[in-house]
Design a protein that fits this description.
155 residues; mainly alpha; 8 helices; globular
Protein backbone atom coordinates (compact mmCIF):
# COMPACT_ATOMS: atom_id res chain seq x y z
CA UNK A 1 0.00 0.00 0.00
CA UNK A 2 1.39 3.39 -0.91
CA UNK A 3 0.53 6.96 -1.73
CA UNK A 4 -3.12 7.87 -1.39
CA UNK A 5 -4.03 4.32 -0.38
CA UNK A 6 -2.17 4.91 2.89
CA UNK A 7 -4.37 7.94 3.50
CA UNK A 8 -7.51 5.86 2.91
CA UNK A 9 -6.41 3.43 5.59
CA UNK A 10 -5.41 6.30 7.87
CA UNK A 11 -8.81 7.93 7.44
CA UNK A 12 -10.53 4.71 8.47
CA UNK A 13 -8.24 4.45 11.48
CA UNK A 14 -9.06 7.99 12.61
CA UNK A 15 -12.77 7.19 12.29
CA UNK A 16 -12.29 4.15 14.53
CA UNK A 17 -10.22 6.25 16.94
CA UNK A 18 -13.17 8.64 17.21
CA UNK A 19 -15.67 5.81 17.62
CA UNK A 20 -13.58 4.38 20.48
CA UNK A 21 -13.95 7.51 22.63
CA UNK A 22 -17.72 7.06 22.86
CA UNK A 23 -19.34 5.16 25.68
CA UNK A 24 -22.77 3.52 25.18
CA UNK A 25 -24.25 6.36 27.25
CA UNK A 26 -22.72 8.91 24.83
CA UNK A 27 -24.35 7.18 21.86
CA UNK A 28 -27.68 7.08 23.72
CA UNK A 29 -27.30 10.79 24.47
CA UNK A 30 -26.59 11.56 20.80
CA UNK A 31 -29.62 9.54 19.76
CA UNK A 32 -31.84 11.35 22.24
CA UNK A 33 -30.58 14.73 21.03
CA UNK A 34 -31.35 13.86 17.38
CA UNK A 35 -34.48 11.77 17.93
CA UNK A 36 -37.39 12.66 15.67
CA UNK A 37 -35.43 15.08 13.52
CA UNK A 38 -35.11 14.70 9.76
CA UNK A 39 -31.82 13.74 8.14
CA UNK A 40 -31.77 17.23 6.60
CA UNK A 41 -31.35 18.68 10.12
CA UNK A 42 -28.17 16.66 10.58
CA UNK A 43 -26.87 17.48 7.10
CA UNK A 44 -27.51 21.19 7.67
CA UNK A 45 -25.65 21.03 11.01
CA UNK A 46 -22.70 19.35 9.27
CA UNK A 47 -22.64 22.00 6.52
CA UNK A 48 -22.85 24.88 9.00
CA UNK A 49 -20.07 23.37 11.12
CA UNK A 50 -17.89 21.98 8.33
CA UNK A 51 -14.74 23.92 9.24
CA UNK A 52 -15.07 22.98 12.92
CA UNK A 53 -15.59 19.30 12.00
CA UNK A 54 -12.48 19.32 9.77
CA UNK A 55 -10.48 21.00 12.53
CA UNK A 56 -11.75 18.39 15.01
CA UNK A 57 -10.74 15.46 12.78
CA UNK A 58 -7.31 17.00 12.12
CA UNK A 59 -6.67 17.57 15.85
CA UNK A 60 -4.83 15.11 18.05
CA UNK A 61 -6.96 13.10 20.50
CA UNK A 62 -5.67 15.18 23.42
CA UNK A 63 -6.45 18.46 21.63
CA UNK A 64 -9.97 17.26 20.81
CA UNK A 65 -10.65 16.90 24.51
CA UNK A 66 -8.95 20.05 25.78
CA UNK A 67 -9.63 22.74 23.17
CA UNK A 68 -12.44 25.10 24.13
CA UNK A 69 -13.82 25.37 20.59
CA UNK A 70 -14.79 21.67 20.65
CA UNK A 71 -16.47 21.53 24.07
CA UNK A 72 -20.02 22.69 23.30
CA UNK A 73 -20.60 20.17 20.52
CA UNK A 74 -18.16 17.39 21.41
CA UNK A 75 -20.49 14.42 20.84
CA UNK A 76 -21.88 15.84 17.61
CA UNK A 77 -18.33 16.51 16.44
CA UNK A 78 -17.35 12.91 17.17
CA UNK A 79 -20.31 11.62 15.16
CA UNK A 80 -19.65 14.04 12.30
CA UNK A 81 -15.95 13.20 12.45
CA UNK A 82 -16.68 9.48 12.11
CA UNK A 83 -18.76 10.20 9.02
CA UNK A 84 -16.18 12.57 7.54
CA UNK A 85 -13.48 9.91 7.97
CA UNK A 86 -15.71 7.28 6.35
CA UNK A 87 -16.35 9.63 3.44
CA UNK A 88 -12.63 10.39 3.10
CA UNK A 89 -11.72 6.69 3.10
CA UNK A 90 -14.35 5.86 0.48
CA UNK A 91 -13.20 8.71 -1.77
CA UNK A 92 -9.53 7.82 -1.45
CA UNK A 93 -10.23 4.13 -2.06
CA UNK A 94 -12.32 4.97 -5.13
CA UNK A 95 -9.53 6.96 -6.74
CA UNK A 96 -6.77 4.49 -5.88
CA UNK A 97 -8.39 1.19 -6.93
CA UNK A 98 -7.43 1.10 -9.76
CA UNK A 99 -5.22 4.16 -9.34
CA UNK A 100 -6.07 7.30 -11.25
CA UNK A 101 -2.67 8.39 -12.49
CA UNK A 102 -1.49 10.83 -15.10
CA UNK A 103 -0.07 9.28 -18.24
CA UNK A 104 -2.83 7.34 -19.94
CA UNK A 105 -5.09 8.57 -22.70
CA UNK A 106 -8.00 10.93 -22.06
CA UNK A 107 -10.37 8.09 -22.95
CA UNK A 108 -8.75 5.71 -20.46
CA UNK A 109 -8.84 8.37 -17.75
CA UNK A 110 -12.49 9.15 -18.50
CA UNK A 111 -13.34 5.46 -18.12
CA UNK A 112 -11.32 5.07 -14.90
CA UNK A 113 -12.66 8.28 -13.36
CA UNK A 114 -16.22 7.38 -14.30
CA UNK A 115 -15.77 3.98 -12.71
CA UNK A 116 -14.36 5.57 -9.55
CA UNK A 117 -17.30 7.98 -9.41
CA UNK A 118 -19.79 5.12 -9.74
CA UNK A 119 -18.07 3.16 -6.97
CA UNK A 120 -18.10 6.28 -4.82
CA UNK A 121 -21.79 6.93 -5.45
CA UNK A 122 -22.64 3.29 -4.84
CA UNK A 123 -21.17 3.34 -1.34
CA UNK A 124 -23.65 3.84 1.46
CA UNK A 125 -22.34 5.81 4.41
CA UNK A 126 -25.04 5.76 7.09
CA UNK A 127 -26.27 8.96 8.66
CA UNK A 128 -26.37 7.13 12.00
CA UNK A 129 -22.98 5.41 12.19
CA UNK A 130 -23.69 3.30 15.27
CA UNK A 131 -25.07 -0.18 15.81
CA UNK A 132 -27.10 -1.26 18.80
CA UNK A 133 -29.60 1.59 18.71
CA UNK A 134 -31.86 2.43 15.78
CA UNK A 135 -31.40 5.65 13.85
CA UNK A 136 -32.91 8.69 15.54
CA UNK A 137 -33.84 10.27 12.21
CA UNK A 138 -37.46 9.66 11.26
CA UNK A 139 -36.72 9.72 7.53
CA UNK A 140 -33.42 7.84 7.46
CA UNK A 141 -33.37 5.34 4.60
CA UNK A 142 -32.29 1.85 5.52
CA UNK A 143 -28.54 1.38 5.03
CA UNK A 144 -29.19 -2.25 4.15
CA UNK A 145 -31.13 -1.46 0.98
CA UNK A 146 -29.41 -3.37 -1.81
CA UNK A 147 -30.10 -3.67 -5.50
CA UNK A 148 -32.24 -6.66 -6.35
CA UNK A 149 -30.04 -8.35 -8.95
CA UNK A 150 -32.96 -10.53 -10.05
CA UNK A 151 -34.82 -7.44 -11.29
CA UNK A 152 -35.18 -7.93 -15.07
CA UNK A 153 -34.52 -4.22 -15.64
CA UNK A 154 -30.94 -4.70 -14.37
CA UNK A 155 -30.17 -7.52 -16.82
Amino acid sequence: MSGLANYASGSSNIGEELRAVLQPSDIASLRERLLGRPVSYWLRWRIENHDLICSFVAATPSDRKKLEKFRDHYLLLVMAGIQLCQEAAVLLEAITTPPLTVGGSYREMAALAGDAYNRLCGTNIPYWPFTGLPTPFFDDPSPSTKLDRSDPWLK
